[in-house]
Amino acid sequence: MATSRAAKVQAEIDKAKAKLAEQQTRLRELESKKTEIENTEIVDIVRGMSIPLDELATLLQSIRGGALPVSTSGRNVPKLKTTATKETLTESADTDKEADTE
Question: Hey, which residues does 75 pair with through a beta bridge?
Fold first, then answer.
């Protein structure tokens, strides 16, 4: 009788291991797919910039080294402090609106 219960538990263990291996394989496939999609997006962005290939490496190294300011949409936008609260942001927006109306 004890062998029967042990065999059932071993069968459950084997089943769980098989499911785990299947999920690990699925996870690796999804991570690989995500990386491939990200790489495709990066290539599309770079190609859209019309930068000659020989200048691209120099530009990226300059940005990494901090030699060039990185801007968004042609505007320099200061980063928000992580301690900013919703009220602080709302007050700031209200102040901006008042300044625009004056």
Answer: 72
